[in-house]
Design the sequence.
């Protein structure tokens, strides 16, 4: 296509919009933003049952990284052993958790499909563990402050809290760009 006078080449990241909510700039800042503002994520496990044993299995789960004013970056979950994902995790705790930017307003506000590569995706990998007794009160505050409805879920489902001990962090926030981020960041 012909360019009009004064029209230069499109700058790289032309469609890279600034995320609302501030936070630290860069990849680690984007990762923290996604961990803080996502209320659900996609957990992938290795199936531990029946004909699909050993195959990949995934499920969307509610999560919280802390009470509203105390974001920790550690995802907490309120789960039941009746969920196939939890059955898998109790046999093999290794999992990945993908947090899409689709949960916020960025993609919608900029008229970008949530599956477009400009909408960031954060993938956390590590071990899912039962929250130890000394952290249960914090886990309750984290989940119940962000998801009040879970308090009303049927008690007969034996709900308990899990969290992910993060070992690896990967962020995709542009076409083909998948970047590892140090856990310390």
Sequence:
């Amino acid at each position: 296509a012909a360019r009009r006078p004064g029209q230069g080449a499109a700058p790289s990241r032309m469609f890279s919009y600034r995320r609302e909510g501030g936070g630290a700039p860069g990849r680690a800042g984007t990762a923290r933003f996604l961990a803080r503002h996502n209320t659900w994520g996609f957990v992938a496990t290795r199936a531990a049952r029946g004909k699909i044993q050993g195959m990949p299995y995934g499920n969307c789960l509610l999560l919280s990284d802390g009470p509203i004013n105390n974001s920790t970056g550690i995802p907490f979950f309120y789960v039941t052993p009746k969920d196939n994902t939890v059955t898998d995790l109790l046999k093999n705790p290794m999992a990945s958790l993908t947090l899409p930017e689709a949960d916020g307003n960025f993609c919608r506000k900029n008229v970008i499909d949530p599956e477009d590569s400009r909408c960031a995706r954060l993938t956390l990998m590590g071990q899912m563990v039962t929250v130890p007794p000394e952290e249960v009160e914090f886990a309750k505050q984290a989940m119940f402050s962000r998801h009040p409805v879970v308090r009303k879920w049927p008690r007969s489902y034996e709900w308990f809290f899990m969290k992910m001990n993060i070992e690896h962090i990967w962020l995709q926030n542009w076409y083909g760009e998948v970047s590892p981020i140090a856990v310390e960041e």
Q: What stands out?
A: Strands lie at 40-46, 56-62, 76-79, 94-100, 121-130, 160-174, 177-181.
